[in-house]
Amino acid sequence: MFHRSRSPKPTVVLVHGAFADSTSWNDVARELLDEGHPVVAAANPLRGLSSDAAYVREVLAGIEGPVVLVGHSYGGSVITAAAVGADNVRALVYVAAFIPDKGESALDLAARFPGSSLGEALHPVPVTLPGGAPGVEFTIDRARFPHQFAADVPEGVARLMAVTQRPVTGAALEEPAPEPGWRTLPSWAVVATEDLNIPATAQRYMAERAGAQVTEVQASHAAAVSHPREVTRVVTAAAASVKA
């Protein structure tokens, strides 16, 4: 069944990244709804890049009309892949996100530029992957989460985010990206200048390579939580470029 909207504005699909869930978009979603945008917050499985992208593509297939696809962190890798073959996607927005080219993984990109302290904050747990293969999934140590992920978010909110964070598999972070959607779609990017997960230098490099329109915000990795209005402005700028 299609998600139908009577709004003349495109639907905004929000895709969270690792160590987060869809509630990380709450304030951005509220602002978008107030502006008349239909909004869908997709629950990113965080199991593997190709399977995560396939799931988001299924979400997109259930939406009638044009879509602005927004990704945070590892969600940027997911939307880059999911947009390919999704004919209703008209624009991509990256928020403190990975913007991979073909063959690159999130792990590759994270290691390419200095400045990330994420590795030392991760807590690994062995898991069984789909199909029965052994694997590992990661969370951020709860005591380190507020500083590492959300240093500019009120402490009480950051502590709750640490509790509700969703783990990501190592396989998802290591899987090479397919042909990227940004080659054929206009892109926007919010660069979080105080990000301790994906350094701002890495974000700038990826955004410029993708030809994205860049907005810099003095924010932690949790830019959508700490600076929802700034993030919303970028999303609405992307939406304004979409013709019905």
Automatic annotation (TrEMBL):
Keywords: Hydrolase
Residue stretches in coiled coil: none
GO molecular function: hydrolase activity
Annotated ranges, domain AB hydrolase-1: 12-232
Pfam families assigned to the protein according to its UniProt record, in alphabetical order: Abhydrolase_6
InterPro entries from the UniProt entry: AB_hydrolase_1, AB_hydrolase_fold, Sec-Metab_Biosynth_Hydrolase
UniProt keyword annotation of Hydrolase present: yes
Acyltransferase keyword on record: no
Superkingdom of the source species: Bacteria
Protein name: Alpha/beta hydrolase
